[in-house]
Amino acid sequence: MDDELGARLKSYEGRAATLTGKGRDPVNLPMIRHWCEAMGDTSPAYTGPCAIAPPTMLQAWTMGGLAGHEGRAAAHDEMFALLEEAGCTSIVATDCEQEYLRPLRPGDEVTFDTVIESVSPRKTTKLGTGYFITTRTDVRVGPDVVGTHRFRVLKYAPAGAGPKRPPRPRPVVNRDNAGFWEGVGRHRLLIQRCTACAALRFPWLPGCNACGSPDWDTVEAGGEGTVYSYVVMHHPPFPAFTASEHAADAAGPYAVALIELAEGVRMISGVVGVPYDKVRVGMPVRLEFRSYDDELVLPVFRPCEEAAV
Q1: Are residues 194 and 134 in the same domain?
Q2: What pLDDT does residue 151 have?
Q3: What pTM was estimated for this model as a whole?
Q4: What is the DSSP secondary-structure string of 89-155?
Q5: Domain containing 223: what range?
């Protein structure tokens, strides 16, 4: 048949990927606090004696860390082994969907089961040819399902190597953040502002995380900021990210920073124009817009000392 591999992969639909996984820690206030600080979410619902966990933390309670989880079923590894043997050696996350049935509260013990929900027909993308795989994780407290997490990846064979460098992956643009990316295309960094309580928020959201109002407008960031936190990324060679502003080759490490803008919100971005080991917490930076090809423009930050030269 035309796609024998696709037919074999289809046979894994409905099979378990994880059975009776268990969250490594109960739902707890320290993790909630760290999450809210990183996201800049000041909702009072997540503090105090009646605190609940932010709904979008759902996946965090199921993560196994570097040690992973017990209970991963053989079907998961078998399916990915088939893809690897067929040359689909690369993987990229494409999107996720979550459904919340009741809030999680400190002390809740989370268990979960993951099933291979669907495998797409063979698809050809700019990255290469492969298959979109969707898994569904049902998260439980006791016998009750409290939320569902669907996660979709593309497992693919990279497009043929050649002298032309592949394009950088594109950001996911949806109805909630389209205005932000339109602004970036015009070299404007737009921050949402609630028209009910005037709270600024980033990233863009459909409603205010301070008062809940769905009404908003935007203000333009001035471009000044400081490095609030950062990580140094190490990954295998990936030609799309070979760039002189990061490293001499694609395997070289580079810094990804959480930038606190002068307006008070924080955003994740790259720090350019300085070696990764020179990035420091508190470093003043200045916004610039960098074009990576004819279509892709990204906001990045350069140390102020470098920008002034």
Answers
A1: no
A2: 94
A3: 0.55
A4: -EEEEEEEEEEESS---TTPPEEEEEEEEEEPPPEE-SSEEEEEEEEEEEEEETTEEEEEEEEEEEE
A5: 178-308
